[in-house]
Amino acid sequence: MKHIGKLNTGVATAVLGFAMLSAPAFADEQAPATTDTSSTIVVTGSLIRNPNIKLASPVISTSAAEIELKQGTNAEELLRDVPGLVPDIGSSVNNGNGGASFANLRGLGSNRNLVVLDGDRIVPANLSGVTDLNNIPVALVSRVDVLTGGAVTTYGADAITGVINFVTKKNFTGVELDLGDDITGHNDGNKFRADLTVGGNFADGRGNAVLSVGYQKVEAVYQGDRDYSEYNVGSYSGSGSGSGTAVPSRFSLRTVNPTTGAPHTGTYSIDPTGGGLQSGYTPYNFNPFNLFQTPYERYNMFAKANYEVSDNLEVYARGMFSRNSVETIVAPSGVFGSTVSIPLSNPYMSSTLRNQICSGSLSGVYTEFSPLSQAQCNAAATATSPSSPGYQTWTTVLKRRMPETGTRNSDFVTQMFDMKIGMDGKITSTINWDVHAAYGLSTNTQSETGYVLTDHVQNALNASNTTSCFSGVGCVPLNIFGPEGSISQAMAGYLTSPSTTTIQTSLAQVHGQVSGDFGWKMPAAANPVSFALGTEYRYYHATQQADILAQTPGELGGAGGAAPTINGGYKVWEGFAELVAPLVEDKPFIKLAQIEGGARYSSYKVPGGAGENTWSYKTALTWAPSNGLKFRGSFAHAVRAPNIGELFTPATTGLTNLLTDPCAGSAPSSNANLRAVCLAQGAPSSSIGSIANPSAAQANVTSGGNINVRPETANTFTFGTVVEPVQVPHLSFSLDYYRIKVTNAITSPTATDLINACFGDSSGSGVTSSSASNPACTVIQRNALTGGLDGSSADTPGLYGVLGNLGYLYTSGFDFKADYDHTFGAVRWNVDVTANHTIKQQFQVTPTSDVHECAGYFSASCGSIQPGWQWSVRNSLHYSKFDVSLLWRHLSAINQETLDVTNNGAAYSGALPSGLGSLSGDNVNFGHISAYNYFDFSLRYAMNSRLTFVGTVQNMFNKQPPIVGSTIGSTSFNSGNTYPSTYDTLGRRFAITAKLKF
After folding, report:
1. Rounded CA separation 630/58 (Å)
2. 790 and 666 both lie in a single domain
3. Containing structural domain, residue 994
4. How far apart are alpha carbons 705 and 648 in whole angstroms?
5. Which pLDDT value is given to residue 24?
6. What pLDDT shows up at residue 905?
7. What distances in angstroms separate CA 305 from CA 40, 199, 200, 491, 507, one per listed residue?
8. Residue 690's pLDDT band (cuts 50, 70, 90)
9. One domain, residues 793 and 824
10. What is the pTM (predicted TM-score) of this model?
């Protein structure tokens, strides 16, 4: 079976040609994209309440019919196929998932776009102020509007790349029950959804109230359940890869050549047959334990009501609650490079190993452990306590995977509620007012199990018999000197203990505005000038509290980093104004000429930091020379202030992706300048020549927030055209160019940037005689025993990448939208096309670092994949009670990032070796992913006015994901030998939904 997807270009060209003949252009929204808030209408992208306004900013809308065909369990699935949205943390991310799902518009980060509900912010899910898509009430969503430009003055400066507005149903009456279930062709990954919505009018139709309750459950799918991900494959070697924290145990030993006296550090593993040390080890294959689909369970309630007190006064309220449980599962814990001290009287240490240590003899070299006579060795072997005569210890760096303790599980339980109450009314027949307040609270508790406690490991090694330790309540002596299975259940029970970390966020906000028009219009215009004027106050607060286990660096084996205590918040007061002015209407060559303007003043107050006063503004123009033809353009300037995480997160040591360490291997032995740099970073002289590359391509990095970061500045520009030819009814299309540039960006350097700043590249070619004193080099801190960049976070800070304001972000491209429908007798045909072409997606962390180009490229620096071309084409036929629909999803080809080739070498290309299961013998090119095409088929049947069934087959042709290995991208997005957030890893899926109305 071949696992590298290839596009049949002839078929693709034919299908594309058919689609383009069906819809020869790209469509704008047929009607204004509006948000229903009580009984008034707010245009998405404007605070002006006027349903007749058509703005210059493009809006991509997903209708209720499309939502029904997609059969999404949560809001993330409704957005997954929208071109221009880059996959972010979600249900396909296992290692790196914090129990939430986020949206990333344009690929510039989920913190640079806003997700709103009926035009309103809701309480964020984390320290970065980002909305969790799991909290959106899918059953009540009637439409999703994606506003891709000019949003900063309407919604705030953190809407740099746009706004995703989930619009709920208005004035719902009756009872609606939705039941949905789907499963993969492998008979796993089941998803179940049940939603009940009840609503009705009251007070003679002056009021309406609706309540929706829902339940969703998603089952796990393991990477070991798919043959292409059963074995971890190195992206640059093509061979079986995995973690250096393996079983049997590995030890780092300082040695001395007996002839030359040169120091050396070697890594050896336990020989399970003889109990002594041997060279080499087998990397631990962690793939089978990891997830392609994280299990998820959710309960939610949503209610809203509005009541018209009089013709000029209405009150309204909205409340929502959800409880989400997301579980992530990774391979078993262990000791990941911690320094331990082991008595020579340890009862599980073999005499072979003890004699190797005592004599100093090991594979032709001698350990720096002072050799002991046989009598001294015998005395050390029988010492019963540290105070016993002859007691001796062996200090070493230990790496031992402990499958006996089970997998590492993190259960994230989030409880969120958000309430809003307000009133609106009319000042005059054309001027409205609105005042509302909202408060939301989100609590996310992470419960971790299966993590080995490093201090308990040390306690359990300090033993001279098999029943008791020198210290530690309940301590059980530990056997790390045998094969897998040598750790008993009692030993495993002492090594692990549950740990919890809780993140709580809150948002309080008050909003007031006046909007409408005074009846005044420009001399050549038919419609008056409209305006909105108002103010807004928001207070964000967030805390992170962890128990002592999670707070202690390196205590939880394999947790990646400590969870420090965080407590911070900020207040922002804003004043805003918007104006829409038709200049000329219904004149020759000017059907409409319109100008828009907006400004937002923001005053930020940060306890313990400097306050910030910023301005965001926009201007936009629309020119329609005739019916059916319109040109539009906009420019917006935004100043985004740092969020709580960017301000208050203390510097902590975690993990980053790094394939090659310039100090690894023999290079420092022959390069005096490189050797001096490695030593200056803390590597012991004995390690030079034998430093290992980071285990599993994961190095330690110390990073965090910075109270001194200042706001970043963004300029966005859009220009496009909309065509709705009167000669072809029901056809519309649009083409829009966009460009977004962010300067003084709040960013953290990538591992490659940090390495290159010191070494020039992964080979160390850029070091000079002065590099050893260069701050870019000395800020890197290595393990004091092994010289490596991995190991316990307690003693290996590794790279240093704290946030700063030196970054630069840039993206540009085109958005396409088309819609056409035609009736052939009793059959109606509709085709809808949404496409995006990303020309550039660049980032630079500092003015002197590399400029990464990520549009159409993948690497650890680029994170999630942004294809150069992406489109969705839906063809639908409607006849009587039946709807038949085919969705074509396209992702263009992707290549290894050019800088990654320079820094790490070209990815593997050729035949894969044996020992990799079904992948063995496949001819691959891990530096290239061919274009991908997926097809989803849907059938909708309305049995009667009350009962409707929808059946869908997703990934009809069971197309398997591209295989590129697991070490060429970031941990969150490159896993299981592929990119599971971008490509379908589960295979063909069958879904059915029943909707009952009465």
Report:
1. 12
2. yes
3. 1-30+724-747+807-998
4. 5
5. 29
6. 92
7. 13, 9, 10, 58, 22
8. confident
9. no
10. 0.90
